[in-house]
Design goal:
The chain has about 475 residues and is an alpha+beta fold. The protein contains 16 helices and eleven strands. The radius of gyration is 23 Å and the shape is globular. It binds adenosine monophosphate (AMP) and magnesium ion.
Length: about 475
Amino acid sequence: MLDWPFDNSYGALPDRFYSRLAPTPVSKPKLVAVNQGLANELGMDAEDLASDDGVRVLAGNSVPDGADPLAQVYAGHQFGGWVPQLGDGRAILLGEIIDIKGIRRDLQLKGAGRTPYSRGGDGRAWIGPVIREYVVSEAMHALGIPTTRALAAVATGEPVYRESRFPGAVLARVASSHIRVGSFQFFAARQDVNALQTLTDYVIARHYPGAGGALDLLDAVIRVQARLVAKWMGVGFIHGVMNTDNTHVAGETIDYGPCAFMDWFHPETVYSSIDRFGRYAYSRQPDVMVWNMAQFATALLPLMDGDLDAAVEQATESVRRFPDLYRAAWLGVFRAKLGLGTAEDGDASLINGLLAAMMDQKADFTNTFRGLSDGSARNQFADSSSFDEWVCLWTERRGREPGAPEEQKERMRAANPAVIPRNHQIENVIQGALAEDFAPLFRLNEVLARPFDLPSEDALFALPPRPGEEVRQTFCGT
Ligand code: AMP
Ligand code: MG
């Protein structure tokens, strides 16, 4: 029998925070992948997870001792439009586990069947989006970017009907929690100030034990989100669905749907098939996060000190700090990418100068930055004249850095990954999975686990797509 150290706290909150229900069993569960490193962090044994008992739990066919399965309710702004009730429509929180470092972590099954929040949906996921989330979330973790994690994926043995008929799958996801800006909005919209206070106290205790109240919480979330978005920008990541229900209060990247990493650089890049107006384009992400933080601030107003005017003033001041916090974080990220350990006023224009040359020549984002440390960046430019001019400015700037050139190179190698999960590779892995060949998945995961350190025999993983391989559109992931 599985003996997992559950210690559940969300289920102790009032009934109106969730619906208690078990996952819906599936006909023929079969393990696709298990994440040994993460299992160990949780104090679990990967072999137990891969055993028949383990796979039954991961598929939702049996509920382990100590679990308290439930679907969380939330609301949110989707593409700017208010939706008063959303919730886990295809996910079930099994419970919380205290990991070997003493950190409380949610264990959730995504694709585990219908819930009261499923609306028209079937509560299921097909193997494509499950693999996509598995690969990308683990890659993000290896890149040092806060994210939910992937513990395992299982095939259900049941079909899921989307544009066509696909094999169903369940993702076992681990997160510091699954509480979203939309969780607060849900209660705020109902003027349920009691619940709002309870949720605030809960989030402070779980994520920000130093915070004194709602305003402190707002400031803390603004800080972590400013840093998170800056990190996304530094690897060319486009979340794709930055709705407030997909904005995590502890600053983890959550709900990987039509997300993608850019190949060649253009600030207006959009991959998501449903983002027709480019609301969530690469360069829009910081502005969208300000907007999301304004929604969070609005939800917290009833808990702030003083009358409404005073509360609005304080909250507005906090949200207004986001652009400066973001800019500082962005400068930190991109200075490191250029090997710079000190700060100068002209650094932003130096960084933007490179990005402009990259945009003009459709240079590959990842390989240009990685190539700065080994001299190969120039190869990314068909016409290298503007890049060559930029290198002169960069060389001058580097001359004013105190450390040795080798230190700058080291800094660059640690800030510029050699590999990211490219769309065409993910697509390739999904095609393999559809033919029940999971070897490409394991191989890709292995390479992405050490993104700053690519052995020469794996150099093909760093290649941008060939013309026929390019994936220009990604889908919702439902
Ligand atoms: P997302 O933007 O992918 O995070 O999903 C938005 C909302 O739609 C969430 O509340 C999901 O739980 C719900 N949803 C997405 N796919 C399904 C599905 N297949 N069945 C039921 N609900 C779903
Ligand atoms: Mg979501």
